[in-house]
Design brief:
By secondary structure, the chain is mostly beta strands. It is built from one helix and nine strands. The chain has one domain: Immunoglobulin-like (Sandwich).
């Protein structure tokens, strides 16, 4: 058999095999973050409070798409007299899930409005909001 016939048959067989072989679906992996985990693929940036809203940006530091990012949002109340605080602190924490997705190395803005709104008080003030990533799902092609 000539070399050209062998190459043609090999190419045909390989093409037929590739045509019937399904591609592996993308794998979704859930990641839970421990306190202080600086190696998280998702970072939080530019957090601030504007009127009744807490806003910020999520940054995907990895090479895979990220979605379903679970955030812990904490707004502490600082009493004017910390030695004699009031009985009910109006500060609060909430969990927010940002559906995403965030593309590899991409950014996504988020916004959270506490319900009910944070009460304005004369016996103290709210600290700057703290937001940390609790977990997320990332999608990688295998």
């Amino acid at each position: 058999m000539k070399t050209t016939h062998v190459l043609a048959l090999t190419s045909f067989a390989l093409g037929a095999l590739l045509a019937i072989t399904p591609l592996a679906p993308a794998a979704t992996t859930t990641v839970e973050i421990a306190d202080g985990d600086a190696n998280s693929l998702v970072a939080v940036a530019d957090v601030s409070r504007r009127e009744d809203k807490i806003i910020g940006t999520l940054v995907n530091r990895g090479g895979d798409e990220v979605r379903d990012i679970r955030l812990l949002i904490d707004v502490a109340f600082l009493w004017k007299n910390e030695l004699h605080p009031g009985e009910d602190s109006p500060g609060r924490s909430a969990v927010l899930t940002v559906a995403g997705p965030i593309a590899p190395h991409g950014r996504l803005a988020f916004e959270f409005t506490p319900t009910p709104p944070l009460a304005e008080r004369s016996d103290g003030r709210y600290a700057d909001p703290k937001v940390r990533v609790m977990g997320y799902n990332f999608v990688s092609a295998q």
